[in-house]
Structure formats: C-alpha cells, structure tokens
Amino acid sequence: MPPTDTTPENPAPKDSEGGATPADAAAGKDVATEKGVSTQKGGTPEDEPAAELPHGEAPGIRFEKVVKRFGSNVVLRELDFTVAPGERVTLIGPSGSGKTTILRLLMTLETLDEGLIWIGDETLWHMDRGGKRVPANQKHLHEMRKQVGMVFQQFNLFPNMNVLRNLTEGPVRVLGVPKDEAVERAKGLLDLVGLADKENAHPTQLSGGQQQRVAIARSLAMQPRVLLLDEVTSALDPELVVGVQDLLRDIARQSDLTMLCVTHEMTFAKDISNRVLMFDQGQIVEEGPPDQIFGEPSEQRTRDFLQAVLAS
Amino acid sequence: MSDVLDSYPQWLDGAWVTVRLTLLGGALALVLALIFGMAGTSRFPGVRVLNRVYVEFFRGNATLVLLFWFFYALPLIGLRFSTTFAAVLALGLNVGAYGAEVVRGSINAVPKAQFEATVALNFTPYQRMRRVLLPQALALMLPPFGNLVIELMKGTAIVSLVGLVDLTRVSKNIQGSTGETVAAFSVVLVLYFIVAQILQLFVRYAERRVDRMLGRRLPSEPSLGTIAAGAPGAGVSS
C-alpha cells in the first residue's frame, strides 16, 4: 500500500505537517510562476540557464520508523518525517545528531537497518517481489538512485578527468546520453555556475569554491529530482562561501527540485528552505518554518544549539 | 678483456633472452595482478578468497621451484611446455602475486570519497572501477610496479638452470671459454644494470603520464637531479 506523500499514517508527522503546509503551498506557487516566466521569455539569455535545470515531477520523501546504527551507537531512532514534492528542507543540529546520515541513507551510501524510506511512491531500500517487501537488490537501487543527486562537503570531483569530463562522464556512461548532447548540456551547466571558461581546466587548478560549483553542476547534469546538499560550504574559505550560496539560491529559485540541505549557515538555511528540522540524538526535536525556528524556537535544546552556532 | 667483448653476439643473444622473458613474464604478471588484485577488493567474500588463494600460494613459493615444476614435473603428467613458456609462467605467476597485493592496496587507498561520488552519480560497479578507481590507483601502483619489474628481470637469471641461454648463462659460458672470470662477470653486471635502467625509464615515463592525468603539475616540481643532489627541502613544492 504505497502511501501518498501528503497523508502520513503516523500522527506525529501529521502535526508537524500542519506547520509546513503554508510553506509548501508557497513553494508550489513559486515554482508555478517560475515556470510561467521561463516559458514566456524562454529565448532571452538570462533564462537560458533555467532551461538546464530539472523541471517536472519531483518526488516527495518519507522516512518511516527509520533506525540506523553504527555498531552499538544508534544514530537514528525510529525517525519519522516527510518532505513534500519540491519542498526545501534544512536539517540542523549538533554533530552526531544524524542529519548527514539521513542524506547518506538517501544516497545509498549507508545501508538501512530498520524502517522504510520512500522516494515518491516507491521504497528506496525495499522492493516488491511477489507481493512481499524484500530488501532491494543492486538493480533496484540503481533505478532509485536516478532520482537523487548529492553534493558533498569535500566536492569529490574526479581528479583523473578535466572539468568537462567530470560533467559528461555520468550522463554519457550511466544515462546513455549521446556525447554531443552531454557536452552541450555540460557547457550550459558550466555557464550556469559561472565557470564556462574552465571546461578544460583540471579540478586541481580550481579554487575550492570553483570546485564546489563544478560539483553542483556535475550533480545537476544527472538530472536528479531530489538534490542532497551535505554541508556544501563548510570546507570553503569564508570569502568563497557567498558565491556557492548564491548559486544554490538561484538553483532553488529556478528549479522545482526537492532539496534536503544540511548546513551550519543559518542565513543560508533561512533563504533556501521552506522548513527547518532541528535534530538531536537521532530524533527531530523541533520543526517549523525557518522564521519560527530561528526567530522564536519553542524548545530549549534548539535555543541552546542556535546560541552555540551564532557564538562561533 | 677483448676476448670477452669480442663475443658480443653471444652477449646480445643472452640479453635478448633476458629482455624477452622480462617482457613476457611482466605482461603475464600485470594481467594476473590486475585480475586478482581487483578480485581482492570485491564485496563478495567468494571472489576475495580467489585473491587470497592465488596470492598466498604463488607468493609463498620459490620461483625456481615453480620453474622446476613447470619444466620437470608437469611433463610427467602430460603437460608439456616449451622452456620459455615454462619460465614465463613461473615468473609471471610469482611476480603477479606480489603485483596483486600492490593493485589491491592501491585501489583500497583511493579515497573513499571518490567511491561515494561514483555512487552518487549512479555508476555501475564496473564503471566505478574502470573510470574512477583504477585510473587513480594507477598512480599509486607505478612505483611498486617499477620495483617488481626489475625484480622480475633479475629473477630471469634462474632460467639458466633449465637450459635457457640468458645473460647469466652467457657470462658463465664466456668465463669458461676465455678464462677471464673478472671481465666476464663485470660485463654481465653492467648489462643487467643497463637493462634495469631502461625498464626504470619506462616506469618513470608512465609515472609522468599519470601525474599529468591527475593534474599534478610537473614543471614546478624540482628535477630528479636537484633531489638527488640533496638540496634541503628540494622535494617540497611551495
């Protein structure tokens, strides 16, 4: 029985969903107008980058009683939460609270111990065989991963390829896009991230900020529907942070990707997200629109955390 | 001395046998090293066992004993090889076992983050290995491979014991026929050294190519000469 994303079975997420609904609606409206705009003046140069960005049915995400352990250390304890299609959610919380693990589970970089993770109306880690839910095989994971892209803290560009190859290798080899088309798209994406002149450069010749922008372009080249951002500015020099954040803001504005974002940059979180989830010890402590969480958090744990972050 | 040098056709023939065995044995060793090295990084225990069995068996045996097996023992059960083929098998299997460990270690030494990026881009396991892990591991493999190919070249000397006329055999022959012990063995010493240096040149060239592929800038690095000259901090690029 595949549940739809808007009607969670658990009472707990339902409450929280109430808080998020206006934000969802606003996001939906944003997307709609954005689409309208881009079709109206699709020929103008400013709008060309927008055409490179994924549009179309972004799936929602749902965690159902998800448990993740590393040895005896329980990182996620029966975690439930829902992300609506096209919603932008920021995960905050102290280190070790499990927020990065959530992204890594969605990218299949960690295996799930218990519970279910839904992407759209399919489970990521389980598949249907003869009416029974069995652990997913590699083929199922490969299919499911097509919807998901991830940008890493340390960029993780491939040093054995130049910038252009970094962007075309996935589309050509994995998606089977013809070489010319992949190069064309890659150039468009490099233009979008402001590095059109660097296509033949080597990743080692780029600054951290430039590398991260290439990494963002690389993940977009795979045309994901869900984008995971794992502390994408944490490894950057302070003066490079703004460029990357501006780029992500533009992407958020011009696409309808479902985005999950782990960050310690509170202003950025405020700008980019519809909803903020505060984690501690593998559970959601508090959630709500960014203004509420950052402005008047109701939980003492959230207040302590925000104070500590702002003091740093 | 001139007697020794006058027999240069023999020296050349011997050198050619040594070089040929090195190249053929090296090619076999490389293929085996890659196959069994990659098997050692598999996520399937059954495949990893193949790596362990191969490595432990052929690393744990004297090349000469392997050679005796291929040359004397296997013909008795109906497997007959040419002398050269038996030598190439013995050398390749032995050095390939060392090489497999080099390949396995190098692949495992590629940062985990690179593997994770290939998962995030939805590469298949084959594509991960072929497009990302192996090219980067190659940079780590080359220096130890340089060691191994020279080890293998020197190891070819054992074939003189099963009747192949390689450099070592030629030096013995010439020592016998001319009686100039010091001269004969000096020449063979120099010839082995030259062959080793030529092999090393190829490895250096490959290292350079790989460094360029990985975007490690070479021009700014100090030349080998400056490092060899012992300039303090010569290896540290600013």
From TrEMBL, chain A:
Domain ABC transporter: where? 61-306
Its localization reads: Cell membrane
Q: Which GO terms describe its cellular component?
A: plasma membrane
The record's section on SUPFAM superfamilies has:
P-loop containing nucleoside triphosphate hydrolases
Establish whether keyword Glycoprotein is in the entry: no
Region listing for Disordered, in residue ranges: 1-57
Residues in a coiled coil are: none
Q: Which UniProt keywords apply?
A: ATP-binding, Cell membrane, Membrane, Nucleotide-binding, Transport
Q: How does it sit in the membrane?
A: Peripheral membrane protein
- Taxonomically, the superkingdom here is Bacteria
Please give one Gene Ontology molecular function term for this protein: ATP binding
Task: Please state which protein family the record places this protein in.
Answer: Belongs to the ABC transporter superfamily.
State what protein this is by name: Ectoine/hydroxyectoine ABC transporter ATP-binding protein EhuA
This protein's species is: Actinomadura darangshiensis
Please state the gene responsible for encoding this protein: ehuA
UniProtKB/TrEMBL annotation, chain B:
Q: Enumerate the subcellular locations listed in this protein's record, separating them with semicolons.
A: Cell membrane
GO MF, one term, reads:
transmembrane transporter activity
State a GO cellular component annotated for this protein. ATP-binding cassette (ABC) transporter complex
Keyword Transmembrane helix attached: yes
Q: What is its main location?
A: membrane
Matching PROSITE patterns, A to Z? ABC_TM1 (PS50928)
ABC transmembrane type-1 domain residues are 15-200
User: In the record, what lineage is assigned to the organism producing the protein?
Assistant: Bacteria, Bacillati, Actinomycetota, Actinomycetes, Streptosporangiales
The portions of this protein that span the membrane are 20-41, 53-72, 78-98, 137-162, 182-203
Q: Which family does it belong to?
A: Belongs to the binding-protein-dependent transport system permease family.
Q: How does it sit in the membrane?
A: Multi-pass membrane protein
Its name, as the record gives it, is Ectoine/hydroxyectoine ABC transporter permease subunit EhuC
Q: Which UniProt keywords apply?
A: Amino-acid transport, Cell membrane, Membrane, Transmembrane, Transmembrane helix, Transport
Q: Which InterPro entries match?
A: AA_ABC_transptr_permease_3TM (IPR010065), ArtM/GltK/GlnP/TcyL/YhdX-like (IPR043429), Ectoine_EhuC (IPR014342), MetI-like (IPR000515), MetI-like_sf (IPR035906)
Organism (species) = Actinomadura darangshiensis
Q: Name one GO biological process term.
A: amino acid transport
| Annotated PANTHER family | L-CYSTINE TRANSPORT SYSTEM PERMEASE PROTEIN TCYL, MEMBRANE COMPONENT OF AMINO ACID ABC TRANSPORTER
